[in-house]
């Protein structure tokens, strides 16, 4: 329905009896936690699923620079500005490691960027929401990086070597990002009533979109079962979302902020928080391109690509000149 705009050629999970001997041997290696490396044989649908997920992840990092980039020139102190600048640069770095990991699967960066610019490839829904106040920098670090870490820590153990290794460094940096966001929230919550209200307002706007980052509920997740069998995903969307809620509610309590969910309550029997229903209609509208900032975000990326054409051309010309000189020598 809303899925597979980038086709992976897979519409159902392959049962073991339907696998070829090569596919069975491949699955055995996955089950034994042996990493798959770039030049090794892999089923075509595994390769395409990885390209889809890794490139969407890379696009999310790159587009994810935009909402925070909006506040660099308006950070309240020089120190906050330097920290935010470093964080936004980290996101660019994450995008680059991830595009490199995707390229090891035989796809070019130009193809991947073309899929982003033409709207074929997705990026995380969360980056289609506006950043209206400085407190949003706190909410993004605390909640958005917090959700990203929840999803990415297990991916350090995923089956594809280059992706799992990229995740190790990314997770270290994301954990610094999460702490800087929480630090902004702490400062605001210890400040004036207006500052605390600003923090509450940011939480009100980012809470539900942060829960949507984990994707559709398990019952509606198209790719989860096969991706988990291949260890491209290590845990389901709902498992990770629940863990995020359980971890984040006490952090909101500590700040003295209220999570905007009247149904949120501790369930001692389940040993987890119960929480209200996500507005899935909003989620699907955002991933279809109809969120508050989808057009603006995509346009910013397309403009950056077009305005940077002269840099790519100059670099190529320079590389060719050096190559010709080296050959002549
Ligand atoms: N937004 O069958 P599933 C970050 C799509 S990094 C948009 O469950 P899957 C760092 C999904 O692609 C954030 N689309 O799919 C940062 C599929 O469509 P397709 C990104 C979504 O792949 C912080 C369809 O719905 N992290 O934030 C979303 O098994 C601060 C069906 O869904 C990653 O990418 C969504 N939220 O599970 C940067 C982590 N959810 O492709 C800057 C790796 C689902 O068929 C500032 N990715 N869809 O057209 C994953 O773990 C998975 O890909 C999921 C989705 C969990 C995102």
Lateral arrangement of strands in the main beta sheet: 1-2
Bound small molecules, deduplicated: Phenylacetyl coenzyme A
What summary fits the major beta sheet? 2 strands, antiparallel
Distance between the termini: 58 Å
**Would you list the SSEs in sequence order as H and E?**
HHHHHHHHHHEEHHH
Secondary structure class reads mainly alpha
List the uncertain runs: 1-6
Task: Please give the share of residues in helix.
Answer: 55-70%
User: Any idea what the shape is?
Assistant: globular
What's the count of strands?
2
Radius of gyration: 21 Å
| Strand content bin | under 5%
Mean pLDDT equals 95
Secondary structure tally, helices: 13
Provide structural commentary.
By secondary structure, this protein is mostly helical. 64% of the residues lie in helices and 2% in strands. The protein contains 13 helices and two strands, in the order ααααααααααββααα. The chain has helices at 21-31, 44-63, 65-69, 78-103, 109-117, 135-155, 161-189, 193-212, 224-229, 237-255, 280-290, 294-307, 309-328; strands spanning 265-267, 272-274. Mean pLDDT is 95; it is low at 1-6. It binds Phenylacetyl coenzyme A.
Question: What is the structure about, briefly put?
Answer:
This protein is 64% helix and 2% strand. The chain has 13 helices and 2 strands, in the order H-H-H-H-H-H-H-H-H-H-E-E-H-H-H.
